Amino acid sequence: MKKQLHITGLLLLFTLSVFSQEEAPVKNWTRSGTATLNFSQSHLSNWAAGGENALNTTGRLIYQTNYAKNKTKWNNNIDLGLGYSILGDNKAIKTDDKIELNSMYGVKASDRLFYSLSFSFKSQFTDGFDYKKDSSTPISKFFAPAYITLGLGLDWAASKHFEMNLSPATARITMVNDQRLADLGSFGVEGAKYDTAGLKIKDGKQSRFEFGGKFTAKLNVDLAKNVNFTSKLELFADYLKNIKNVDVDWQNLLTMKVNSWLNANITLHLIYDDDIKITDKDGNSGPRTQFKEVISVGLSYKL
After folding, report:
1. I need a labelling partner for 184 at 20 to 30 A (CA). Which of 71, 93, 116, 302 fits?
2. Residue 141 gets which letter from DSSP?
3. Is 303 in contact with 20 (CB distance < 8 Å)?
4. What is the pLDDT of residues 48-90, one digit of tens each?
5. Range of the structural domain that residue 261 is part of
6. Is the dihedral of CA 195, 199, 203, 204 positive or negative?
7. CATH number assigned to the domain comprising residue 150
């Protein structure tokens, strides 16, 4: 765990140092971003009502660098997050973990319409666990899973607040760079094959290829002074398997700025992927709607 945290910290510092350099004099580039550190802490000593000491912390880096000249544009975005919670003398529990890179190159077709080539990468920094069942056997890892997509289509920049992208020719690769998880068939890859005695006769595949259509809608609007709301909806349908099964990834972030260095955030994230099987408390396994909510207050630095 310590080694992974050290690697994660170095990666975050390196990324921050790269993106926070002085803006180049080329006027066609625009850059912006924020780095936040949100935390809460409680300490109890001889507290008659009972309770546990608690420490919660979450770090996040969001940065975008965009290029526009004549009939071309190139938009790039990086979104990194990592959070842990410690309750009493228990081990640290992961509460947030995110690596997401997006890039879109467009050539103008009309006033607000662009032919586009889009790329995205998603993964996580550290091991993930189902803490209700087992806090020692990971159910996810760095690059397990990782999602890489590349799509051709059209991008419509409706306004500075709203943008849509439709990529009817999109390739997506799911990577599970851990043989144990691949053998289990995690995240939709083909699992291992076993004989009648239960001995493995064929390893599970560590990757899965899909080809389909992808739709993305982005919203970025100020609801009030110092209150900003961003939302990104991604839909993907695989032509090769079952086009009726649509994967959904919907991310929402509400930022309330107190002053230049203090902010409060509310994050809502909904995922539905028919290939990800989740086991409920009764032992039933199947695709389910995943939902995460994070409310945090902390320090913010504008890059």
Report:
1. 93
2. B
3. yes
4. 877 788 888 999 999 999 999 999 999 999 999 999 999 888 8
5. 2-302
6. positive
7. 2.40.230
